[in-house]
Hints:
The structure holds 2 protein chains of 2 kinds. By secondary structure, chain A is mainly alpha-helical. In chain A, 82% of the residues lie in helices and 0% in strands. Chain A has helices at 5-16, 19-45, 49-63, 67-89, 92-97, 101-126, 129-137, 142-172, 184-193, 198-230. The N and C termini of chain A lie far apart (57 Å). The model of chain B has no long low-confidence stretch (mean pLDDT 92). The longest helix of chain B is centred in the last third of the chain and has 16 residues, at 172-187. In chain B, the strands form 2 sheets. A 6-stranded mixed β-sheet of chain B has the order 6-7-8-3-9-10, with helices on both faces. Chain B has a 4-stranded antiparallel β-sheet with strand order 2-1-4-5, with helices on one face.
Amino acid sequence: MTFDAAYILVSLKVAIRFLHVTLLLSVIPLAVGIAVGTPIAVCRKFRVRAVSQAANILIPVLKGIPLVLYVLILNFLILKPLDRLAPYYAWADRLRVMDKIYIGIAAMSAWAAVTISETMRSALNSVPAGQYEACFSVGLTRTQALRRIIMPQALKFAVPVLCNNFIGLIKGSSIVYVIGILDILGGAMTSAQINYRFLEAYIAAALIYWMLCLTVERVSWRLEKRFKLKTGG
Amino acid sequence: MIQVRGVRKSFGKNEVLRGVGFDVKKGGVVVILGPSGSGKTTLLRCINFLENADDGEMTIGDLSVRFKHATKKEILRVRRRTAMVFQSYNLFNNKNAIENVMEGLVTARKIPVAEAYETAKRQLDKVGLSGKYDAYPSQLSGGQQQRVAIARAVSLNPEVILFDEPTSALDPELVGEVLAVMRAVAREGITMLVVTHEMSFAHDIADHVLFMDGGLVVEEGTPREIFTRPKEPRTRQFLDRILLKYDYSI
Lengths: 233, 250
């Protein structure tokens, strides 16, 4: 079979219709990851006992699990108990066709929370110890110090890494095809089902991911520049 | 009036402070001298609870605390009665000069912004930085940064300002401007506790000198006593070595 460059465009048109799925699978986990990961990082920085001890044990473990296993394990954990309940409520039919995007979002969010908590921890550690001490010496409480002085400085270190995390989420979201969610990659592949032009479909998907990541990269660049201006150098 | 008694602090097996005590009178300037590793800086950091001392107690005005058992509230109260000037300046990097001075006033002391702004302006003018309100720390020289830090400390109107080797990180040519500002602060009658290696400066502004070595106050007295008639051999040895360098004479 010859390579049909024109078919890339066909695949592209099909795949682009699933853009929102990929965006849902990456933007929501990014937000959840920041919302959950940041408090964890702060608790570890200030050695808040219960949280930091749990995190010290759990995070190294969770960090070592590949994203695809988060998706598979969560898929199993969520579906299994529901399957058991299904006969009593006559759900059986509905479960088969249930939109699994929620499972995908949950799995991606869990992975993002672990990753971003580490991003934020290293960002907090990048703020010199003297800044913390100066805060305390003028009588700021921890919360005030964090809000007014530490976080604004930590963000400068965090933003480029967060953008990298986001790119990781966008690209990583493509593995949700293992539980049958149709995202950009899945969509592109459906366009090849009829004529087996998979290479063209893959290239089409790659082009979309590439455009997405390029956009994030540009935004990251802008943000970095703005932070630099704000702190005067 | 500040009383410090029996401060002990170990880092692992290394005993840095072995029961240090001293008094500072209201408006007094106490200078702490000593070789590096004698625990001077650690002592200042313990007073401000940047380090948690293992033992000892302190009275600042009507507030008494035991270092080991201080509650969060007590620590905050101590910190709001003291201010510190650091060796490495430690200005807030995300705030400009005037915001650096205002931060403690507005956020910690809840002073209205307009009033804090006036105070900050006055203090920055006093340290000779009237044209630098909007400059960020990265745009200021070391000497200018340290002067902002002093303005920040003075503006809080604390019962005592702790100076931790404020000129040690400066280029030699910038030391003078910072010392001049500190002299002015001393003349205003602000209570100061100063760790420094600037001997002639110590002699001029101190009304009491502590000489520390090996985690203890080895000798104390007026600058005249310490510099001209040190009793302890350890003090004499230290001063001989240092003063030679500065060609000191009284």
